[in-house]
Design goal:
It contains 2 helices and no strands. It is mostly helical. Helix 1 (about 1-15) runs antiparallel to helix 2 (about 20-45). The longest helix is centred in the middle third of the chain and has 26 residues, at about 20-45.
């Protein structure tokens, strides 16, 4: 839920600064992709791995 609030606020601020719509969409998209990758890597680090040899 917090992510949705942050995205909406960020979009509103960028629109209030009169940035072109393409810039707003690109920034939100790239930010979302980076967030997904960060989440995947965090889960990979925190998930215990099986130690079968």
């Amino acid at each position: 839920m917090a992510v949705v609030i942050v995205v909406v606020l960020l979009t509103a601020v960028m629109a209030a600064c009169r940035l072109p719509l393409e810039t707003v969409i690109t920034t939100i998209t790239v930010g979302g992709l980076l967030a997904v990758e960060l989440l995947r890597r965090t889960i990979a680090v925190l998930t215990p791995r099986s130690r079968t040899l």
